[in-house]
Amino acid sequence: MDLLTVLALPLLGALLLAWFGSHRFAAELNAGVSCATLIAVAFLVLHVLRGGPLLAIHEQFFVDSFNVFLVALTAFVGFTTALFSRPYMRIEEQRGRLNAKRLRLYHSMYQLFMAAMFLALLTNNMGLLWVAMEAATLSTVLLVSLYRTRASLEAAWKYFILCGVGIAQALFGTILLYFAAERALGSEGMTALLWTHLNSVKGQLEPRVLGLAFVFLLVGYGTKVGLAPLHNWLPDAHAEGPTPVSAVLSGLLLNVALYAVIRSKVLVEGSIGSYLPGHMLMVFGLLSALLGAFFLWRQRDIKRLFGYSSIEHMGIITFAFGIGGPIANFAALLHMTVHSLTKSSIFFTAGHASQTADTQQMDGIRGLVSISPTIGWGLMLGSLAILGMPPFGVFASEFLVLTTAMREHPWTTPWLLIALGVAFAAIFRKVQPMVFGESDAPPLPHSPALVPVFVHLALVLMLGVYIPLALADWYRAAAQLIGG
Amino acid sequence: MLIAPIDRSLTNHCLTLLLLLVAAWIALGLIGLLRPHSVRFVAHVVFPLGSITCLAFGALAALFLVSGHLAEVMTLPLGLPNLPFHIRLDPLSGFFLLLLGLVAAGISTFAAGYFRSGQGTAPGLLCLQYHVFLASMALVVLADDAYFFMVAWETMALSSYFLVTAQHRIPEIRRAGFLYLLMAHMGALCILLSFGVLQGGRWQFTFDTMRGAPLSPFWASAAFLLALIGFGAKAGLVPLHVWLPEAHPAAPSPVSALMSGLMLKTAIYGILRVAFDLLHVRFWWWGVLTLGVGLFSSLFGAIFAAVQTDMKRLLAYSSIENIGIIFTGIGLAILFAACGLPLFAALALTAALVHSLNHSLFKSLLFLATGSVLHATNQRSLGKLGGLIRRMPWVATLALLGTLAIAGLPPLNGFVSEWLLLQSFLFTPQIPHPFLSMLIPLGAALVALTAALAAYVMVKFYGIIFLGQHREPSLVHAHDADWMERIGLAWLALGCVVIGVMPQFALRAAGTVTADLLGRTVNLTSPFWWIAPVTPKQASYSGLVFLAGIAGVLVLAFGMVRILAHGRIRRTAPWDCGYPWQTSRMQDTAEGFGQPVRHMFGTFFRMQRELPTPTDAEPHYRVQVEDRLWRTLYLPIARGVQRLADWIGLLQGGRLAVYLLYSFLTLIALLVFVL
Amino acid sequence: MHRSQLIAESLNLLAASLLLISFAMLSRRRTQRLITLFAWQGAVLFLSTILVAYSAGLTELYASAALTLLLKVIVLPWILHRLVRKLGAQWDSEPLVNIPTTMLVGLALVIFAFGLAQPISQMATTITRNTIGIALAVIFLAFLMMITRRKAITQVIGFLAMENGLFFAATSATYGMPMVIELGIALDLLVGFFILGIFFFQIREQFDSLDLSHLESLREE
Amino acid sequence: MKTLTFVRQFGEVLLAIAIAPLFAGWIAQCRAWLQNRSAPPLVQPYRMLRKLFQKDVALAADASRLFRATPYVLFGTMVLAAAIIPSIATDLPFAQAADAIALIGLFATARVFLSLAAMDIGTAFGSMGARRDMMIGFLAEPALLMVLFNAFLFSGSTALPGVVEASATHGSFIDPSLIFAAIAFLMVLLAENARIPIDNPATHLELTMIHEAMVLEYSARHLALVEWSSDLKLLNYACIGFALFLPWGIATHGADGTAALALAAVALLAKLVVAGGIFALIESLSAKLRIFRAPEYLATAFLLAVLGLLVHLLLGA
């Protein structure tokens, strides 16, 4: 069963690496496991391509057009990040910022995190979804504080408390959901929380309860998405954790959290039959985009900068989901994909850039192209891509979002315009001097692993000018599924 | 039409062939990457091939125009699902493609001689960016759906940004590049929103659906205004012009030529496409607005050009002026069209189109000339040049043609378009609107003023660079341009002369466009050597007679003088009212030449001066002229963003309890909301 | 149905005491006292779960009741006590907001919670009607406590109290979630708690204090 | 017939070239009378030209070709202009080549060439003169254009023959707007031809010179051509003025037999005599303005022209 292997492999890897995590080949092992997972996912995807959506194990797990591409994306980015982390972590070790023990923790937790993500994506059970989200948090907390510096500890602590509290709200929401579902489906064991079942009877669910439930779920999972003003943990965690962790947090965790929000939005919208949830999402999205953009303006730390940029983009995606309708949903899904690809690649380059300059302060990073053209151009192109410059895919989704917004809700476009403009100015005026200009820093001891960067960027570029048919069909089907 | 027998089978495939040539450009760029660090390979192989491609490109476009086909469409298997890339070749795009091909041919030829190996971007990479830039400009003009248009548009901005920052080690150039890309991006967003208004609903981003889409006056106006802002930002309309005088001087000269000569024209194309093709209604106040902005930009550009001391900045401001003139023509055309006077609209539009063509010819010519000067002297400041006509006769002669053309003097091309514009102004009293019919004619006076100021500016430009005595001793070693550069310059100069002497060709090319957009053309019946846009009785002009007349009398007079008198010449020191010892520092400086304009239009500038006092040991005079808009418009915006960012930054106070409070309050608020 | 009547009565009594304990936690300063209160809360939770299990005759609820007893009454308080003694964090310094104000806000929150819960409890099928409102109130109060306290350890206690409220909501309002999820939640709780333990020591060795005022360096300056 | 028109054209051009110095001389003479000095003989300008042609050229050491070509270019432009302006008859083959606006362009070309030549030697006064002359240019052109606008509204054409024909068919009443325009044109004419009150052709005080400063470096035959063409320029402007405002006597299309032509020639001479007198009068009565009063002066001209325009639009003639 492909689905089980997808879930089992990372867990297995976690156990293995808990043993051999400090071994010389741990990094390779880590990459290998991720690669195996990727292959398993590939089989799963083929299976779905052939057989269409599938349910498994008493309907507890399922793959439909909404989560299939997210699963694929997660596996892919997980793999490339593992590849990237090999030389990166080695350099960190040489610089004496990490030791073997910590590396073991890192590797096993990394796999555990992947496992949690897959569980969250694949489960059909809203309760299990919650459990998986919590697990994902817990597994990353120790990664954020991996360096054991004051800053990293503080970041991890805030991350833990804020997301913990948030997640608790989500649990209450889930309970309310169950409470309502019970009356529609009966409390017979496990079925009451199955999304597919709920979705089929969402018309009969009690609107008021679901309204309340949605608020709790939105605040809960929204905290993990990093929607303003619940976002405060995000920049700290991104800046202080090791770069691969920032990459997967930004590239994957946020997506999965948003996935949870949308799953519940579908139910609630179906039940209360109004645009209330949609409008909530739009407001949250706009607020996040705007605040994110203005936060960007004053950043000094490169990883913090791109952390805030994640907030901004999550805002745009949420906004798009809020608008609803086939095009906006399509755009949102596309944006999820390209954002995680681009953002992770940016974190890869940013990590190496800060290693070359031996600081995360952007004032200290100068003239990357003259030291290592690959890093420099990687960062430049990545930033341009994330700023929505065609022909990169981010532009495609922003194009659809903006045009749809202009048509459906014209009043939102000035705000979007401000957000995008400020974000552009803020990021680009920081990136340009980092990439261009003079520098006398020595090159890195290890050759940086930039293949992932350019693979990601190539994919993003492709999505800008050509979207494969299968992917487009998934997006469309998912957009239908989400409806709104 | 012009060429009676044309090979139909060829004209039927214009679009395909054009696309192939675009692909060829990109291929050439990639070839350049094969040997990224070999200047000789890039300069002697890639760029010449590129210029040949450009020639073919222009020829094809011309062929399409004369073939009289209306439109060819095509879709590429790329793009978004349900929205493949649509491509369309119609007279409007054909005209701009012609312009692109002709001018780019000259520039590429020049570039072949120009690019040297320096620090900064490697020549191979430069070559890639250069050809991608060309290709994206062509695609902008060819695109037939909003998405493809935007992709090409932004690719154009991006590639040109990289070209501008080729010398990225210099901080000012980085600043210029940043400002440029920022403005370009904001403009692009406005254009995008304008398309958002124009679109016909789900997945309907093709221009065809937009043409049909019915819009309420409000939304139509919104679309037009957004487009005007967006394209205006690219074209450098005041007050969106600030990036232009920074970016154009920063770039290598062939790139400045491309940007000023061609990229700005894509903005013209865009506004024409939206105003005359996509929008099915036009209101008179759109025209008045465009006209006003255009007139102001042209005057503004001319005045600022007059006080510049850097030769490339001077040309950049003169670009703003010419763009202003073009927009004036467009505004008139919209106004006439809205008032139901299609013939006069056609006249004004013709003027705008022909001026676009002319401007791209002589402006690129002059930018390239400054490039040669730059190579010969490493000087951009007018204060350190002078007397180069004796060191680099080729460049000086060809630049003289460009100077006369851009100064709007007969019998060269610049005069033709300005003459047409004035002609169309003559009919503004017929506008059925009491105030407009009295106010708009005064615009003609402004155009005349601008044209004369342009002449002033160009006398300054040419006189200070090429005439007089060397202001720096080092200039003695200045060398003339090499033969590739000369060919490039000569090609463009030839264009200026031909269009000036036989404007009928340009008018016919523009005629196909106006016929397509407005259903009318100006009077094209007169023979090729003179034009009479409305009726011969009303007004006519013949550049050929001018040239022949002047030349004939010149030769006759020369002959007569030689026959009747003698040709004896004594070389002496200059008589300057008998003032004994002349030095080169006694000539007019650039600042000095700008003085009357500074004096008369002082309100436009923000001036800082250091005047010498009688007791100075070594008296010196410095004047610095700034754009008021920069301090009154842009810096306040930047400061506002900064302040806002500071306030918002306080949200992230670092205290966990406060963060918890945020989420708690959010929770409560939402609960209250759903209650 | 006299028996169910009785059970309902006593459940409501327990719920009320849960709320009372939460208020008490808001007002207390000494950390040990807080921990004790937390243990009491756990005990009440245990009893209520037993009662619900008994009245509804759901065997797996007994299991989760046992889990509650084990975790929240015995293990966690014990560990917390040891931590406090080890780290010498007996006294919480002055809370950010003074106690009376906190109480007033708490009161307002309770009213708000009841108001929210009103329509829901109307449609509850279980014998435990109004308990969901109380659960909500408990959650809010815990939240409030986390906001107002300064020490890391008190925040954690607040966090755990919130979990209690959730658990109470789960059992009383819906006769408990499916077993898998119960287990999952419990597991997460446990793991989370151990991570907290690790943190305490790390924070201690870095900042040699558990005062959160040290953890305010990451900010937009 | 065609050949005849060409002959006529040729004759007209020759006439213009021939009488241009005479006109200048006439003005000088009138001015002398008005300032009761003893006047130079009428043929004085011809003598000067002859003398200049005989002299050797003293050419500045590093004068470029541009400098040496400019006098011929000036002469060419002015002769071409003379060929285009219908001073005697309207039915001229060259008249089609340009309307009045194009004529302005032609004069601008001459101006630019002269300014460039003035900057070529690189002396202080040369570039100063060039700068000032170009300034006068951009101040004068708007006013001139507005004058033509008036003529166009009046006659529906900017081609001078068209204007003449129109006023001929119109009968000979004076449109009120044309009076404003005429005054404006006169003011522009004085400014454009470097005469008092903008410039003083007779001055040799360096700092006040404009035209003189530009031709400072020219000598002998070059100077002769420059002077001749500035005389031609004055004559051309006068003829434009006649065509626009006093077209009486000019032989119109169709009615241009030999007699008519002779009459036209006489009329032209008469007009020139009067005009010369008027110029002299103005120059004697008014004093030269400071250079930065020039804007006010030309702004007045512009204002008058615009007033004419508005009057016309208002009265809807």
Query: H/E element string of chain C?
Result: HHHHHHH
Tell me the β content of chain A. Answer: under 5%
Oligomer state equals heterotetramer
Q: Outline of chain C, from the CA principal axes?
A: globular
Strand content of chain C: under 5%
Poorly predicted runs of chain C are none
Total beta strands of chain A: 2
**Greatest interface:** B-D, 82 and 81 residues
Question: Pairing-aware structural class of the strands and helices of chain C?
Answer: mainly alpha
Cα gyration radius of chain A (Å): 21 Å
Radius of gyration of chain C: 18 Å
H/E topology pattern of chain A: HHEEHHHHHHHHHHHHHHHHH
Q: Calculate the mean pLDDT score of chain C and round it.
A: 81
Strand segment tally of chain C: 0
Tally the structural domains of chain C. 1
Question: Would you write up a description of this structure?
Answer:
- The complex is a heterotetramer of chains A (484), B (675), C (221) and D (317).
- With 484 residues, chain A is mainly alpha-helical.
- Helix content of chain A is 78%, strand content 1%.
- Chain A contains 19 helices and two strands.
- Chain A has helices spanning 2-20, 26-51, 65-94, 100-122, 126-144, 150-185, 195-200, 207-225, 233-240, 243-272, 276-296, 302-323, 325-357, 368-371, 373-386, 393-408, 413-435, 451-465, 469-482, and strands at residues 54-56, 61-63.
- The termini of chain B are far apart.
- Chain B is globular, with a radius of gyration of 27 Å.
- By secondary structure, chain B is mainly α.
- By secondary structure, chain C is mainly alpha-helical.
- Chain C has one domain (2-216).
- In chain C, 79% of the residues lie in helices and 0% in strands.
- Chain C has helices spanning 2-27, 31-56, 59-87, 99-122, 131-148, 152-174, 179-207.
- In chain C, helix 1 (2-27) packs parallel to helix 5.
- Chain D has one domain.
- Chain D has eleven helices and one strand.
- Chain D has helices at 2-34, 44-54, 65-84, 100-120, 124-155, 160-170, 176-192, 211-214, 220-245, 258-285, 294-315, and one strand at residues 57-60.
- The two termini of chain D are 37 Å apart.
- The mean pLDDT of chain D is 86.
- Chains A and B meet through helix 6, helix 8, helix 11, helix 13 and helix 16 of A and strand 1, helix 6, helix 7, helix 22 and helix 23 of B.
- Strand 3 of chain B pairs parallel with strand 1 (57-60) of chain D, so a sheet runs across the interface.
